[in-house]
Amino acid sequence: MDKNNCIKYMEKFFKLNTDILWLKNPDFLMQSRIFYYRSNFKGINDIKIATAKSKNISDDIVFDIYFIRAEFETLFSGYFKIVPVTSAAETMFEGVSKLCTDLGEYFYYVYQNSEFLKIYFATGSVENALEHHNRKKTKEGAFDFNKFKEDMYLEISSYSQEELREMVLNRNLTKKYVSNFIKLNSKCSEYVKMFLINILSEVYIRNICIINNAYNVKNYILVEAQNAKVNSYPKVCVYDVIEKAVKENALVLVKFNYDFKTGG
Protein backbone atom coordinates (compact mmCIF):
# COMPACT_ATOMS: atom_id res chain seq x y z
CA MET A 1 0.00 0.00 0.00
CA ASP A 2 1.38 3.43 -0.93
CA LYS A 3 0.89 6.66 1.00
CA ASN A 4 -2.10 7.86 -1.02
CA ASN A 5 -4.03 4.64 -0.45
CA CYS A 6 -3.07 4.67 3.21
CA ILE A 7 -4.62 8.12 3.63
CA LYS A 8 -7.76 6.93 1.83
CA TYR A 9 -8.03 4.11 4.37
CA MET A 10 -7.54 6.56 7.24
CA GLU A 11 -10.44 8.59 5.84
CA LYS A 12 -12.48 5.41 5.40
CA PHE A 13 -12.09 4.22 8.99
CA PHE A 14 -11.65 7.47 10.95
CA LYS A 15 -13.28 10.88 11.19
CA LEU A 16 -11.66 14.10 12.39
CA ASN A 17 -13.46 16.63 14.56
CA THR A 18 -12.19 20.04 15.62
CA ASP A 19 -13.29 22.96 17.80
CA ILE A 20 -11.14 25.43 15.86
CA LEU A 21 -13.55 27.59 13.87
CA TRP A 22 -11.33 28.39 10.90
CA LEU A 23 -10.27 24.75 10.50
CA LYS A 24 -13.45 23.71 8.72
CA ASN A 25 -12.21 20.57 7.01
CA PRO A 26 -9.33 18.99 8.94
CA ASP A 27 -7.72 16.07 7.14
CA PHE A 28 -4.93 13.54 7.46
CA LEU A 29 -2.63 15.59 5.22
CA MET A 30 -2.20 18.62 7.50
CA GLN A 31 1.31 20.00 8.02
CA SER A 32 2.48 21.75 11.18
CA ARG A 33 4.10 24.70 9.39
CA ILE A 34 0.63 25.89 8.29
CA PHE A 35 -0.30 26.42 11.94
CA TYR A 36 3.11 27.79 12.86
CA TYR A 37 2.85 30.73 10.47
CA ARG A 38 -0.79 31.65 11.10
CA SER A 39 -1.04 34.96 12.97
CA ASN A 40 -3.80 33.71 15.32
CA PHE A 41 -1.47 30.93 16.55
CA LYS A 42 1.51 33.17 17.34
CA GLY A 43 0.95 33.29 21.10
CA ILE A 44 -0.08 29.65 21.53
CA ASN A 45 2.47 27.12 22.77
CA ASP A 46 0.27 24.04 22.38
CA ILE A 47 -3.34 23.46 21.41
CA LYS A 48 -5.54 20.49 20.52
CA ILE A 49 -6.43 20.95 16.87
CA ALA A 50 -8.44 17.78 16.27
CA THR A 51 -9.74 14.51 17.68
CA ALA A 52 -9.79 11.38 15.52
CA LYS A 53 -12.40 8.71 16.20
CA SER A 54 -13.08 5.39 14.53
CA LYS A 55 -16.24 5.64 12.42
CA ASN A 56 -17.37 2.37 13.95
CA ILE A 57 -18.07 3.65 17.46
CA SER A 58 -17.80 0.19 19.02
CA ASP A 59 -14.16 -0.05 17.88
CA ASP A 60 -13.42 2.81 20.30
CA ILE A 61 -10.19 4.05 18.69
CA VAL A 62 -9.79 7.67 19.78
CA PHE A 63 -6.73 9.91 19.67
CA ASP A 64 -6.09 13.65 19.89
CA ILE A 65 -3.81 15.69 17.65
CA TYR A 66 -2.03 18.64 19.27
CA PHE A 67 -0.01 21.40 17.63
CA ILE A 68 3.17 22.29 19.53
CA ARG A 69 4.76 25.64 18.80
CA ALA A 70 8.53 25.20 18.48
CA GLU A 71 11.15 25.72 15.81
CA PHE A 72 14.52 24.20 15.01
CA GLU A 73 16.51 25.28 11.96
CA THR A 74 15.57 23.26 8.88
CA LEU A 75 14.09 20.40 10.92
CA PHE A 76 10.67 21.76 11.88
CA SER A 77 8.47 24.82 12.24
CA GLY A 78 6.08 23.53 14.85
CA TYR A 79 5.12 19.88 15.16
CA PHE A 80 2.16 17.64 15.95
CA LYS A 81 1.83 15.46 19.04
CA ILE A 82 -0.42 12.40 18.89
CA VAL A 83 -2.09 11.55 22.21
CA PRO A 84 -3.96 8.20 22.39
CA VAL A 85 -7.18 8.52 24.40
CA THR A 86 -8.44 4.93 24.47
CA SER A 87 -6.65 1.63 25.04
CA ALA A 88 -7.20 0.59 21.40
CA ALA A 89 -5.51 3.80 20.28
CA GLU A 90 -2.60 3.15 22.65
CA THR A 91 -2.14 -0.23 20.98
CA MET A 92 -2.32 1.34 17.52
CA PHE A 93 0.54 3.74 18.35
CA GLU A 94 2.61 1.33 20.42
CA GLY A 95 6.29 1.39 19.50
CA VAL A 96 6.09 4.30 17.06
CA SER A 97 6.84 8.00 17.22
CA LYS A 98 4.01 10.18 18.47
CA LEU A 99 5.55 13.40 17.13
CA CYS A 100 5.56 14.51 13.50
CA THR A 101 5.34 17.50 11.16
CA ASP A 102 3.38 16.00 8.24
CA LEU A 103 0.31 13.87 9.02
CA GLY A 104 0.29 12.25 5.58
CA GLU A 105 3.86 11.00 5.93
CA TYR A 106 3.23 10.14 9.56
CA PHE A 107 0.22 7.88 9.16
CA TYR A 108 1.92 6.05 6.30
CA TYR A 109 4.85 5.49 8.68
CA VAL A 110 2.46 4.25 11.40
CA TYR A 111 0.82 1.88 8.91
CA GLN A 112 4.22 0.44 7.97
CA ASN A 113 5.20 -0.11 11.61
CA SER A 114 1.93 -0.98 13.35
CA GLU A 115 0.67 -4.55 13.06
CA PHE A 116 -2.57 -3.32 14.62
CA LEU A 117 -3.25 -0.76 11.88
CA LYS A 118 -2.32 -3.14 9.06
CA ILE A 119 -4.83 -5.75 10.23
CA TYR A 120 -7.46 -3.12 11.05
CA PHE A 121 -7.29 -1.78 7.49
CA ALA A 122 -7.34 -5.30 6.02
CA THR A 123 -10.25 -6.69 8.05
CA GLY A 124 -12.09 -3.69 9.51
CA SER A 125 -12.13 -5.58 12.81
CA VAL A 126 -10.56 -4.16 15.96
CA GLU A 127 -10.74 -7.62 17.55
CA ASN A 128 -8.66 -9.13 14.73
CA ALA A 129 -6.20 -6.25 14.94
CA LEU A 130 -5.73 -6.71 18.68
CA GLU A 131 -5.35 -10.47 18.31
CA HIS A 132 -2.63 -10.17 15.64
CA HIS A 133 -0.87 -7.42 17.58
CA ASN A 134 -0.76 -9.52 20.76
CA ARG A 135 0.29 -12.64 18.87
CA LYS A 136 3.22 -10.81 17.29
CA LYS A 137 4.31 -9.41 20.67
CA THR A 138 4.19 -12.88 22.23
CA LYS A 139 6.21 -14.36 19.37
CA GLU A 140 8.89 -11.66 19.51
CA GLY A 141 9.04 -11.56 23.30
CA ALA A 142 9.05 -8.49 25.51
CA PHE A 143 12.00 -6.12 25.45
CA ASP A 144 13.77 -6.20 28.81
CA PHE A 145 14.57 -2.53 29.39
CA ASN A 146 15.95 -3.20 32.86
CA LYS A 147 18.58 -5.55 31.41
CA PHE A 148 19.41 -3.00 28.72
CA LYS A 149 19.77 -0.29 31.37
CA GLU A 150 21.88 -2.45 33.68
CA ASP A 151 24.17 -3.50 30.82
CA MET A 152 24.57 0.13 29.76
CA TYR A 153 25.41 1.35 33.27
CA LEU A 154 27.77 -1.58 33.84
CA GLU A 155 29.51 -0.83 30.57
CA ILE A 156 30.10 2.86 31.24
CA SER A 157 31.16 2.16 34.83
CA SER A 158 34.24 0.39 33.44
CA TYR A 159 35.61 3.70 32.16
CA SER A 160 37.71 6.08 34.22
CA GLN A 161 36.38 9.52 35.20
CA GLU A 162 38.62 11.14 32.62
CA GLU A 163 37.38 8.80 29.88
CA LEU A 164 33.76 9.45 30.87
CA ARG A 165 34.28 13.19 30.59
CA GLU A 166 35.48 12.65 27.03
CA MET A 167 32.83 10.09 26.12
CA VAL A 168 29.70 11.75 27.51
CA LEU A 169 29.07 15.05 25.73
CA ASN A 170 27.64 18.11 27.46
CA ARG A 171 23.88 17.51 27.76
CA ASN A 172 23.25 21.26 27.68
CA LEU A 173 24.56 21.26 24.11
CA THR A 174 22.21 18.58 22.73
CA LYS A 175 20.63 21.07 20.32
CA LYS A 176 24.06 22.04 19.01
CA TYR A 177 24.99 18.40 18.34
CA VAL A 178 21.71 17.79 16.52
CA SER A 179 22.30 20.96 14.49
CA ASN A 180 25.76 19.76 13.46
CA PHE A 181 24.36 16.35 12.52
CA ILE A 182 21.72 17.94 10.28
CA LYS A 183 24.29 20.18 8.57
CA LEU A 184 26.60 17.26 7.85
CA ASN A 185 23.75 14.91 6.83
CA SER A 186 21.49 17.08 4.70
CA LYS A 187 19.83 14.04 3.13
CA CYS A 188 18.53 12.53 6.36
CA SER A 189 15.54 10.23 5.89
CA GLU A 190 12.11 11.27 7.16
CA TYR A 191 12.38 8.53 9.77
CA VAL A 192 15.59 10.03 11.15
CA LYS A 193 14.15 13.56 11.08
CA MET A 194 11.20 12.29 13.10
CA PHE A 195 13.53 10.75 15.66
CA LEU A 196 15.49 14.00 15.95
CA ILE A 197 12.26 15.88 16.66
CA ASN A 198 11.59 13.42 19.47
CA ILE A 199 14.97 13.79 21.16
CA LEU A 200 14.69 17.59 20.97
CA SER A 201 11.20 17.63 22.47
CA GLU A 202 10.48 18.42 26.10
CA VAL A 203 9.24 14.83 26.45
CA TYR A 204 12.61 13.14 25.89
CA ILE A 205 15.46 15.67 25.91
CA ARG A 206 16.14 15.19 29.65
CA ASN A 207 16.66 11.45 29.15
CA ILE A 208 18.99 11.67 26.15
CA CYS A 209 22.76 11.62 26.55
CA ILE A 210 24.83 12.01 23.37
CA ILE A 211 28.19 10.28 23.38
CA ASN A 212 31.45 10.72 21.52
CA ASN A 213 31.43 8.24 18.63
CA ALA A 214 35.12 7.53 19.15
CA TYR A 215 34.17 5.24 22.05
CA ASN A 216 33.17 1.67 21.22
CA VAL A 217 30.33 1.00 23.65
CA LYS A 218 27.51 -1.43 22.81
CA ASN A 219 24.31 -0.27 24.48
CA TYR A 220 23.12 2.89 22.74
CA ILE A 221 20.87 4.21 20.00
CA LEU A 222 22.78 4.70 16.75
CA VAL A 223 21.57 7.58 14.56
CA GLU A 224 22.70 7.54 10.92
CA ALA A 225 21.57 9.52 7.90
CA GLN A 226 18.98 6.92 6.91
CA ASN A 227 18.13 5.08 10.11
CA ALA A 228 17.99 5.15 13.91
CA LYS A 229 18.27 1.83 15.73
CA VAL A 230 19.15 0.27 19.07
CA ASN A 231 22.70 -0.93 18.47
CA SER A 232 22.59 -4.00 20.71
CA TYR A 233 18.94 -4.83 19.89
CA PRO A 234 18.42 -3.96 16.19
CA LYS A 235 14.90 -5.45 16.13
CA VAL A 236 13.72 -3.34 19.09
CA CYS A 237 12.05 -0.04 18.24
CA VAL A 238 13.93 3.05 19.43
CA TYR A 239 10.69 4.47 20.83
CA ASP A 240 10.21 1.47 23.10
CA VAL A 241 13.59 2.32 24.61
CA ILE A 242 13.19 6.06 25.07
CA GLU A 243 9.62 5.79 26.37
CA LYS A 244 10.74 3.27 28.99
CA ALA A 245 13.60 5.62 29.89
CA VAL A 246 11.16 8.46 30.52
CA LYS A 247 8.91 6.28 32.69
CA GLU A 248 11.85 5.04 34.77
CA ASN A 249 13.75 8.35 34.79
CA ALA A 250 16.74 6.66 33.14
CA LEU A 251 19.29 7.84 30.62
CA VAL A 252 19.70 6.56 27.07
CA LEU A 253 22.98 6.93 25.23
CA VAL A 254 22.76 8.22 21.65
CA LYS A 255 25.60 8.14 19.14
CA PHE A 256 25.57 10.12 15.87
CA ASN A 257 27.25 8.56 12.85
CA TYR A 258 28.17 11.37 10.48
CA ASP A 259 27.84 10.53 6.80
CA PHE A 260 29.95 13.12 4.99
CA LYS A 261 28.96 11.71 1.59
CA THR A 262 25.38 12.96 2.02
CA GLY A 263 26.28 16.24 3.69
CA GLY A 264 25.31 19.56 2.16
TrEMBL record:
Superkingdom of the organism of origin: Bacteria
UniProt-recorded name of the protein: Uncharacterized protein
Native organism: Acetivibrio saccincola
